[in-house]
Amino acid sequence: MMRAVLRLGREKKINRSLPVDLALFVILAAVGAFMAVPFVFMISTALKSLDELFLFPPTFIVRNPTFDNFYDLFLIFSNSWVPLTRYMFNTVFVSFAGTAGHVVLASMAAYPLAKLKIPGRNFLFSLVVLSLMFAPQVTAIPNYLTVSWIGLLDSYGSLILPAFATSLGLFLMKQFMEQIPDSLLEAAKIDGASEYRIFWQIVMPIVRPAWLTLIIFSFKGLWGTGGGSQGASYIYSEQLKTMDYAFSQIISGGFARSGPMAAATLIMMIVPIAIFVFTQSNVIQTMSTSGMKD
């Protein structure tokens, strides 16, 4: 069946003229350049000196690039009793641990809802869908009470554990797992495969586009907001706070710290963008083949 689909795709190959190809290339290049404007502007701002930052009218491209903003940023934290490397470690640990736990738990919870005939699964999934309607501000107090009740305040767990229970991951994984043919799982059971083996060796590779996409969203959320409102509520020890919280304190320095703040913003942007660049090709590739069945 797979060979027939590929052969049919070759037979129906679309033939376009050179002018059409050039027009498509120009349109896509223009859209790509437009989408890159904010990132280019952020890089340019981070490389501007303090006097160039306050030029009016402002310049889009830096005239005299300098790394003084990055030097000043590290100089600010060199005088702090908590080094910048500690904030970096906290951010990386919370982001990777929260993302890994969220992907694994969401996938393991979605599999029985999608493929096992358990009583009340439709009702449980309806609750998951209903939870997507609530803004994070609505669940902030219940989350705080829960974390406090289990004794995780002022610890990494207060940031990691709430990330495990994000309902978006469960919804996404369940919708993808429903597309897997039941006959494929039944054949594996006939061959003697256990549910755990079916889940890890058959289901998870098939839904690869789902958990790769989930990694992008989960990591981006934890990297950028892990130390914001949650850090202020759950973390009291300075040595456990993340870079997002530490960089937000630079704003309190006023306009004199506009340069270091631009450098800090660029640092916070680079890692999520790099994660997306390294994973988006896999997402596109697996998305294009996930609907094909033998």
TrEMBL record:
One of its GO terms (biological process) is transmembrane transport. Its main location: membrane. CDD domains: TM_PBP2. The keyword Transport applies. GO terms for cellular component: plasma membrane. The chain crosses the membrane at residues 21-47, 87-111, 123-144, 156-177, 198-219, 261-284. It is a multi-pass membrane protein. Residues 88-279 form the ABC transmembrane type-1 domain. Keywords: Cell membrane, Membrane, Transmembrane, Transmembrane helix, Transport. It is found in: Cell membrane. Belongs to the binding-protein-dependent transport system permease family. This is ABC-type glycerol-3-phosphate transport system permease component. It comes from Paenibacillus methanolicus.
